[in-house]
Amino acid sequence: MSELFKPVTLNGVTLRNRVVVPPMCQYSASEGLANDWHLTHYGSIAAGGAGAVIIEATAVSPEGRISPYDLGLWNDTQADKLARIFSFIDSQGAVPAIQIAHAGRKACTDKPWLGGKPLNDWTNFLAPSPIPFDENCQIPKSMTIQQIHDMTEKFAESAMRAVRAGAQIVELHAAHGYLLSEFISPLSNRREDEYGGTPENRARFLIETVKAVQSAVGSEIPLSVRISATDWLEDGFKPEDAVDLANMLKPLGVALIDVSTSGVVLAKIPAGPGFQVPFAEKIKKETGMTVSAVGLITKAQDAENIVAEGRADIVMIGRGHLANHQWTIHAARELGAEAPIPPQYQRAYR
Fold first, then answer.
1. pLDDT by residue (tens digit) across 142-184?
2. Across-strand partners of 291?
3. What angle separates helix 239-249 from helix 277-287, to the nearest 10 degrees?
4. Which residues of 59-80 are buried (b: 16+ CB within 10 A; e: fewer)?
5. In 3D, which of 293, 340, 338 has the Cα closest to residue 313?
6. Beta carbons of 293 and 314 less than 8 angstroms apart
7. Please, which residues bridge with residue 258 across strands?
8. DSSP code of 59?
9. Rounded to 5 degrees, what angle do the CA atoms 188, 190, 191 make?
10. Does residue 349 have an active-site annotation?
11. Cα 281 to Cα 78: distance, rounded to the nearest angstrom
């Protein structure tokens, strides 16, 4: 039997298989509101057989969007728009999930297909320290202690809205150089108070946010945390630091560590098929936590091997699902597993 197509349970929520669609920004919202594009996009992927579908990075505040075209969850109207999408994902047998985020100093960029350059539409850029991402970006404002506490509450409020709308898994985006990630990395956090300096202090904002979110949504909702396991620079966040961070999160009841890399600064990355899997494997073996692997994994057999060899518990397939919304169905057939084909499509596979 295919290991990739065995169910996996996170805090009582069971995924029908270990293929998960990771959050991938669509840059197609207005005022943070989901629309027909999001319903069609996520709905068709859910009908393609994945175990779970994670809605793209969804901002906890207006200035927390990566771009002005990102989804948001700072008000109930936005949650109402997401509810229909969560409901349809669930109706197709996939678990509806969402990633909540704040872009920090990397906020307010244009759509990637328009160049992705920083825009000057906003002025309130927040970060742990007043260090711009690069020479083209504005200098952010160093957050006060009160602003950090307020932001923690915004994450909790957004998570609660998501769950009320139907999300069954909530992921915190603490990777790729966005706000939570900026606090974790020594390259972007130069604070000298209780939120800077030591690894424990730099992790404090994330730890407090995890606790606040769990308090808001309850222990029955699995909480995933996406981290960047390395900054790919000698003086940055390293794989052994990622293990230490996971061990800080473990006693809090975090259900999944979603392991990615990079994004805090520009760095040379040796990207290739499965290039981030070793970091997930390291965290899994050294902490015993449930982990997911992500990054240029496009072949069914490669995904199968990752799980079968015990390198990760879940495989995130991003680009594969963008190219083919039925990637999971095709993978199941290739691996000899029972394919979760909607009855409306079954005649295409006879």
1. 999 999 999 999 999 999 999 999 999 999 999 999 999 999 9
2. 257
3. 50
4. bbbbbbbbbbbbbbbbeeebbe
5. 293
6. yes
7. 226, 292
8. E
9. 125
10. no
11. 36
Residue among 252, 245, 159, 163 nearest 208 (CA): 252
Mean pLDDT value of segment 180-193 = 98
Q: Look at residues 260, 269, 153, 265 and name the one whose alpha carbon lies nearest to residue 205.
A: 153
Beta strands in the chain (DSSP E): 8-10, 13-15, 19-21, 52-59, 95-101, 126-127, 141-142, 169-174, 223-228, 256-260, 291-293, 314-316
| pLDDT value, residue 122 | 82
Q: Which of 27, 42, 69, 178 is catalytic?
A: 178
Cα 189–chain centre separation: 21
Confidence of residue 350 (pLDDT cuts 50, 70, 90): confident
Q: What are the pLDDT digits (tens) for 63-96?
A: 999 999 999 999 999 999 999 999 999 999 999 9
Q: Which residue has the tokens 């793209």?
A: 56
Whole-angstrom distance, CA of residue 208 vs CA of residue 42: 31
